[in-house]
Structures
1.
Amino acid sequence: MTATRRYPRTGIGYDVHRFEEGRELLLGGVAIPHERGLEGHSDADVLLHAITDAVLGAAALGDVGLHFPPGDAKWKGADSRELLRMAVALVEDAGWILVNVDATVVAEAPMVNPHSAAMRLEIREVTGLPIDAISIKATTNEGMGFVGREEGIAVIAVATIAPGDSDNE
Ligand code: MG
């Protein structure tokens, strides 16, 4: 019996974290100088969380909260690079290869673009993607809403996966 043919798929991820005094700000695995960090059970890397959700979503494998429950002591202070690495492994175990990720960080401050090259290198390290398949963009919220009031940072991300080699034989 032939397996059902599979085609590329796309997943979306969205995450928000609130600013908190006295924490280091981590975005895309990079520590960014800022007067505040983000609140969270893990290291609160909102960018990696959105990308992780996009990767999981592409393969319909649930979300970050399902695989890494925030109430679980195991994930307290967790390195979000590890969460993304595990999500990519889950997707690969399901017979997919990750093709690309694209994310937009929505924040009034800090400036993200000066750090995007370093973030892309980190994400390459974690996902194994080529650098030109990793896109990190940034925008402000034009002063509107919770992002505009600088209460937190939001990120949206997409990821595309394609059938792994065993599907192409
Ligand atoms: Mg999160």
2.
Amino acid sequence: MPAENHATPLFSDLQLSAPLLRALEDAGYESPTPIQCRMIPHMLAGRDVVGQAQTGTGKTAAFALPLLMQLRQDKRVQPQILVLAPTRELALQVAESFQQYGRHIDNFRALAIFGGQDYTVQLNGLKRGAQVIVGTPGRVMDHIRRGSLNLAGIHSLVLDEADEMLKMGFIDDVEWILEQTPADRQIALFSATMPPSIRHIAQKHLSSPVEITIETKTVTAPTINQRYLPVNGYGKKLEALQRLLEAEALDAVLIFVRTKLQTVELAEALIDKGYACAPLSGDIQQANRLRTIEQLKSGRLDILVATDVAARGLDVERISHVINFDIPFDTEAYIHRIGRTGRAGRSGEAILFVHPREQRMLGAIEKATRQKITLMAMPSARAINEQRIKKFKDRITTALDGDLAVFQSILAEYQQENGTDPLLLAAALARLSQGERPFLMVEAEPRRERAARPAARNGEKPPRRPREEGRTPRKAITLPTDEAMERYRIEIGHRHGVKPGNIVGAIANEADLESRHIGHIAIFDDFSTVDLPFGMPGDVFRLLQKVRINERPLRLSRLDSSAPEMKKSPRQGLRERKTAGGKAPRSRSRNQDQQPA
Ligand code: AMP
């Protein structure tokens, strides 16, 4: 396993300070991602940079680490780094990352300020002081105007997900803020795409920026069947993994995670469940790594949980499945990972777990590999039980080949004494061997829906109750409780004579979706909501918009807690939800904002 044959980049080669290296060690990061390797040296040299990278590439650390290296030790804690982000979620996430990387820096604080949050909380935070401010443009602008955010000490500015800020109509605000910052500040601009207006901003405000694009090689892997499973959060990933390990016809499995810590945690969780599993990361001595791989080859181990670095060059024919528990940082890593299966002319299975925020990376991978990655559903209890029964029968067949003489005579004696039916006797023995654990899986009942309206989860003002609620008091629009599902609104309700069966029928036929994948349906007076599997492809979405029931088009739109109108207070919504051209959208265009890619 020639991990050492390839030059593995190291954080320690990037001239980062000891407190930062310690924080990276705490986080369990093994090596810098491609964008980190390429961007950090330029940013440390004080250059402006333009990075074409999306979420999931490790872009936050790519700018946060070099900027943290430039912090001044001021007597009074005041803003030195300003990050603009399109959404509150991203602002919070970036502030948390700064806090994580800066944890060993004395007196360090990062603060997120965003629309929808109470001003008092933010004013208190700003008064207390923070070296890093991460905010959404509208709110940052408000604080600058009120005088509560002083930009005099800012030496670095980051525009994160600039194309998203453009789409959400923030670009004028961004330019205004840029003009308020000191002229000699360093700027890093990140954008997954480079539309002309973003290019224009880069040309106007950045000084001879270094442009960094993570190139992708195109490699086709025709013997590998590629699928993805939408999952929303760690718990769902773990559940999906366990179900896959039972439902798929597996030989050996390689599971990829992001950090060294996770290799250990996940391997331990699987060992607890009875799997022959081991972690594989750069923390493990080379000799031990080789031993682990030999054990996988010989069948003493069936599962390895690995980081990209540790699995480099891994060549074990019996790997039937590669499971990307965490999505890779770039498409090249993906291609390398899945190439660990389908070796020596065999076929292989590659499964990718995709979080909502990672949809773009999924698209990038499909583009780079020029292969469609097909959507798969979470294996059902029925599929798992079929496998359990099959494996149980196989075990009986194997046991029948063994030496049964002793048990045979004991059981013959038992039968004579009690006259028990032999089949019943066999069932009792099976029960003994199973112990108290239930043999068959029962599909968990969907959790009871919470009465809270969607935005309440984010601590923001909830959107106005729909008028229909007045007439059907116990029904509220909520988000689905099953995280593998998304809730959609369709413009047909009681008043149009719709029944759940019509909705199931129309969607199942048009989207070619089995009806069991269609979840909860709620019918209101003028419209209805329906839960559909997470990650609906754009073409299916467009198709379903046009489908008609009782002559009415469904005009499907997604209800999503991260959708701008679910999160913003009405006042803010009007100002912040401008279109790129600066006009407030008509309500129809809100639906367009929410279209899946
Ligand atoms: P980002 O693209 O910045 O949203 O990062 C995606 C995820 O990767 C985050 O959960 C980070 O904590 C994680 N991450 C960033 N850099 C590394 C690294 N070098 N090794 C492992 N995980 C990382």
